[in-house]
Write a structure and sequence with these properties.
The protein has three helices and five strands; from the N terminus they run E-E-H-E-H-E-E-H. It is α+β, with helices and mostly antiparallel strands and 97 residues long. It has a five-stranded antiparallel sheet, with helices on both faces. The chain is globular, with a radius of gyration of 13 Å.
């Protein structure tokens, strides 16, 4: 399963999941009024892990929600995206001394 972060030309960021990311991206691009939709990050994992990660992100970012799964591009949303990258790719974490 795939967890993804997208940004529309409006600046809003979509956080979602799909078992068929290419198809879902195509659907989003056709359905949105944004001129274009950029893929910011794509993460792959087990269904349970991705579902739990998406649920946690949506819960933690409730205050930054624009509408549905679309969020304002706030420092909290950008940090959540960086945190998700570290969560899925621990090798991207830097050790602070």
């Amino acid at each position: 399963m795939t967890l993804y972060f997208l940004r529309g030309s409006s600046g809003f960021i979509k956080i979602g999941r799909s078992s068929n990311f290419d198809k879902r991206l195509s659907e989003i691009r056709r359905a949105t009024t944004d001129e274009h939709v950029e893929v910011l990050h794509v993460f792959h994992g087990s269904d349970d892990f991705v579902i739990a990660a998406e649920r946690d992100l949506h819960f933690r970012l409730t205050g930054d929600r624009f509408k549905g799964e679309w969020y304002f591009s706030t420092p909290a949303v950008l940090e959540a995206m960086a945190h998700t990258d570290r969560q899925f790719n621990p090798e991207n974490s830097s050790v602070q001394l």
